[in-house]
Design brief:
It is built from 5 helices and 4 strands. It has a single domain, classed as Rossmann fold (3-Layer(aba) Sandwich). The chain is of the alpha/beta class. The relative contact order is 0.15. It has a 4-stranded parallel beta sheet with strand order 2-1-3-4. The mean pLDDT is 88.
């Protein structure tokens, strides 16, 4: 894996606590980013999204911010940074259930989370096909 020395990452987290935006999610990824050469700044609010200069210096934004409301300025500055090449990553509701009232943000992410169809459904994954690394490395069939 290529080292990414000198890279800057912003971790922006908060919103609905049901998605555990700190300990069970972003705190798990921060050491990985640091081990791979990123300088990591952590923000527990959305204020950094209004700082165009900070976002311009950033290589990657890792967001876990479910629901919440961002200002038009925050969304516009964030979208401009992503359009200019800043990476934007996240998962589940921490990225596609954010800022529901902002069409610009929803357009940038390509959609909005709506629901768990059928509620929470227990299921078993059948590993009949060979497991593909590295996504499932260490899993057994």
């Amino acid at each position: 894996m290529q080292e990414l020395e000198g890279r800057r990452a912003l971790v922006v987290r908060g919103g609905w606590e049901g998605h555990c935006p700190v300990d069970a999610t972003t705190d798990v990824f921060i050491p990985f980013l640091r081990e791979h050469g990123y300088t990591v700044a952590v923000h527990d609010d959305l204020d950094v999204y209004a700082d165009a200069a900070e976002l311009a210096r950033t290589d990657l934004i890792l967001q876990c911010y479910t629901q919440g409301t961002a200002t038009d300025e925050q969304v516009s500055t964030l979208c401009a940074a992503v359009t200019a090449g800043t990476g934007f990553a996240g998962w589940h509701g921490g990225i596609v259930d954010s800022f529901r009232a902002s069409p610009e943000y929803l357009h940038m992410t390509g959609g909005q989370w709506a629901a768990h169809p059928g509620g929470f459904v227990d299921y078993e994954v059948n590993g009949a096909r060979p497991l593909h690394s590295p996504i499932v490395e260490g899993l057994t069939q």
